[in-house]
Specification:
heterodimer, A: 92 residues, mainly beta, Folate-binding fold, four-stranded antiparallel β-sheet, two-stranded antiparallel sheet, 35% strand, B: 418 residues, alpha/beta, FAD/NAD(P)-binding domain, D-Amino Acid Oxidase, Chain A, domain 2, 2 domains, eight-stranded mixed β-sheet, 10 helices, 18 strands, 27% strand, globular
């Protein structure tokens, strides 16, 4: 079991959460000027690193808030977690 | 290396089986090859085999970081089927199934392909309609499909839960009788031996560390056994696709996820074919040794760990029990996790790339095993001709940018759902 610390609820089993994927992708700020390549990058391309990975988990069976998590996808260790706008890598 | 036959078996048997020679060589890497295939799994080995067999390209190396067949080739549930709906997929998988049907003879190696049938169960009217549609589309494409009603399913599998207490009653199912299972090791070994006999060098314990480039051309592959100059490079590394592609700065529409599978203690014959549950995600068959081989969903989060977690184990077993309550007291002997290269539309990529002489074979999601011969066949064609075969012409890397997705399930760009 992966244990994720929710900033609202404290440490919880990952079975309470729904995985919401890569947290590094930013939606193109201005759809009017975004190119097809910008959308392709946002919708489809992933860094998919083997190591620390920034991702969102939805605390579906808890507070229903989105949580940002820095997790090592090789060991499944949770390295940091916080609010969606937090810069988790800065504190490390 | 002699042909395997009943006569060679008798001859060796009389000699105490002391005269067998190794099935493929263990050569030192040459300075240079016409084609270097990265990845010694089923797909990479099949590609090398068909390069030699169909295209006469024999100066080929397969480089494998561990031992051949030690990755996902040994981490699957060995199911073979071609029950696909979209044209871009259906013809490819049907071609693969046809290759399976002649594979043991073609390779002179028994891959133990057994056409015991793949049955997808339906548990409501909507699902029956969807299966009727899928079956009709398959038959229009020349693929066998048979829609069974409840009694038809009961005749084949009386042990499923047909009681009034069933969590989701069985309405019927879609049967592909030509589907089945094969022996996963034998597939890797058969293709390895077949390629080796035609001159392919299989280089094990040979991990790719980087590439030598001249602009958009790859001139050499740096490995733990030295740098190998190459004419063309084919990449078939499944869950490690992003890791290898990132050495070239190539970003791909792929996430790596872990998929678990399980084997029970051996039983007397209980399940004739492959059965999949329709009210959840669960598939089960019985190996020739008697163990039940079963699996379900991926763990739903990015992972390179080759091991999963308990919530999915519980979920898989709950699905299984809802379908077959008589599994309840069965012991699970082994479980394992393999890393799936989940693509953004659930379909594979067998394609040219932005690099002049690099070809990509990836994105197999849950279903790479059944595609092994077909994948090797069309990937070899793509590499040899620098152009796709008609059967993989829709499986391009550019389809994501162009909008020509092959989303069999209609699930959208969310890899965990495919």
């Amino acid at each position: 079991m992966i244990r994720i610390t929710c900033p609202h609820c404290g440490p919880r089993d990952h079975a309470e959460f729904s995985y919401a994927g890569d947290a590094t992708k930013a939606r193109p700020a201005d759809p009017a000027t975004a190119t097809a390549a910008d959308w392709h990058d946002y919708v489809y391309l992933r860094d998919n690193p083997a190591g620390p990975h920034l991702e969102f988990w939805h605390h579906l069976h808890g507070c229903r808030q989105y949580v940002k998590v820095l997790r090592d996808v090789v060991t499944h260790d949770v390295l940091a977690s916080g609010h969606p706008a937090d810069d988790l890598e800065a504190g490390r | 290396m002699a042909e395997y036959s009943v006569f060679s078996l008798i001859r060796q048997g009389l000699g105490g089986h002391k005269g067998w020679t190794r099935a493929w060589r263990d050569p030192e890497p040459k300075q240079s090859y016409d084609v270097v295939i990265i990845g010694g799994g089923g797909h990479g080995l099949a590609t090398a085999y068909y390069l030699a067999r169909n295209h006469g390209i024999t100066n080929v190396a397969v480089v494998e970081k561990g031992w051949i067949g030690g990755g996902n080739a040994g981490r699957n549930t060995t199911i073979v089927r071609s029950n696909y709906m979209l044209d871009g997929n259906a013809h490819f998988y049907e071609h693969s199934l046809k290759l399976w049907e002649g594979l043991s003879r073609d390779l002179n190696y028994n891959v133990m392909f057994s056409q015991r049938g793949v049955l997808n169960l339906a548990h409501n009217d909507g699902q029956m309609d969807a299966y009727a549609r899928r079956g009709n589309l398959m038959r229009l494409n020349g693929i066998d499909a048979e829609l069974l009603d409840r009694e038809g399913v009961r005749k084949l599998y009386p042990h499923l839960d047909f009681s009034r207490e069933a969590r989701w009653p069985i309405y019927g199912g879609l049967l592909q009788a030509r589907g089945g299972t094969a022996r996963h090791d034998a597939v890797a070994w058969g293709f390895a031996r077949g390629g080796d006999r035609r001159g392919v060098d299989i280089l094990q314990n040979c991990e790719v560390m980087g590439f030598e480039r001249d602009g958009d051309r790859i001139t050499g592959v740096k490995t733990t056994r030295g740098t190998i100059a190459c004419g063309r490079v084919g990449m078939a590394v499944a869950g490690n696709t992003t890791r290898v592609a990132s050495m070239l700065g190539l970003k791909l529409p792929i996430e790596s996820h872990v998929l678990q599978a399980f084997v029970s203690e051996p039983l007397k014959p209980l399940i004739d074919g492959v059965v999949t549950y329709g009210a959840g995600h669960f598939y089960i068959s019985q190996s020739d040794k008697g163990g039940l081989v079963l699996g379900g969903d991926i763990d739903f989060y990015n992972s390179y760990a080759q091991r999963g977690n308990l919530p999915v184990v519980e979920n898989v077993m709950a699905n299984g029990l809802a379908m077959m309550p008589n599994l309840a007291r069965l012991r699970i002997l082994r479980s394992w996790g393999g890393i799936m290269d989940m693509s953004m539309d659930g379909s594979p990529i067998i394609s040219k790339t932005p690099f002049d002489n690099l070809y990509l074979n990836a994105g197999w999601c849950y279903g790479g095993f059944k595609a092994t011969p077909g994948s090797g066949y069309v990937f070899a064609h793509t590499i040899a001709n620098d152009a796709p075969h008609p059967f993989n012409s829709a499986m391009t890397l550019e389809r994501f940018e162009q909008g020509y997705l092959l989303d069999e399930g209609g699930k959208g760009p969310t890899p965990k759902l495919h």
